Amino acid sequence: MITLLNDYYRIDSRVAENDDTFLFGVMLLPAYRAYAGHFPGNPISPGVCNIQMIKECAEQLAGKHLFLNYIAKCRFSAVLTPQTTDNLQLRMRITNYEPVGTYQALATLFNDTTTYMEFKGEFAEIK
Fold first, then answer.
1. Among the four 6, 43, 110, 123, which has the fewest Cβ within 10 Å?
2. pLDDT digits over 38-50, tens only?
3. Contact between residue 116 and residue 78 where contact means Cβ atoms under 8 Å apart
4. Banded pLDDT at 1 (limits 50, 70, 90)
C-alpha cells in the first residue's frame, strides 16, 4: 500500500477534540519529489497529495485500510507551499455508519491565518 506519510508529510501530534473529531499537527516535507515538477522554482502542494493525506489520517482513526468511495466537497481556498507553510493543522471528523465499514469524513486543512482546504467525502474499508 502506497503512503505519503514521512515522504510528503509527517504527523507531529494527534489530539482528540471530542469522540469523533481529531486535530492532527502535520508538517509538509519540502524534499518530496513531486515538488520538482509541481512547479520548478515555485513548488505548490499537489491537491491529490492533500487528499491522500486526509485518507491516511482517516485510516489511522478508523484503524483500517480505506479507499475513497466519493468526494462530496473538495475546496482548495489558498495556495499551499512547503516553503511558506510547512506547519499545518488537519481537523477531521470521522463517523462510521451503515453499511458497517463505511466512514463519512469532514476535514479542514489550515494554520493560524488561512484555511487551505475543506473536504467532505466517504471512505470504505478495504476487505
1. 6
2. 888 889 999 999 9
3. yes
4. confident
Q: In terms of CATH architecture, what is 9-125?
A: Roll (3.10)
Residue 121: CB partners within 8 Å, gap ≥ 6?
A: 68, 69, 70, 71, 72, 73, 74, 104, 105
Q: 96, 58 in Cβ contact below 8 A?
A: no
Q: In this structure, are residues 71 and 120 in contact, taking their beta carbons and an 8 Å threshold? A: yes
Q: Where are the domains of the chain?
A: 9-125
How many residues in the chain?
127
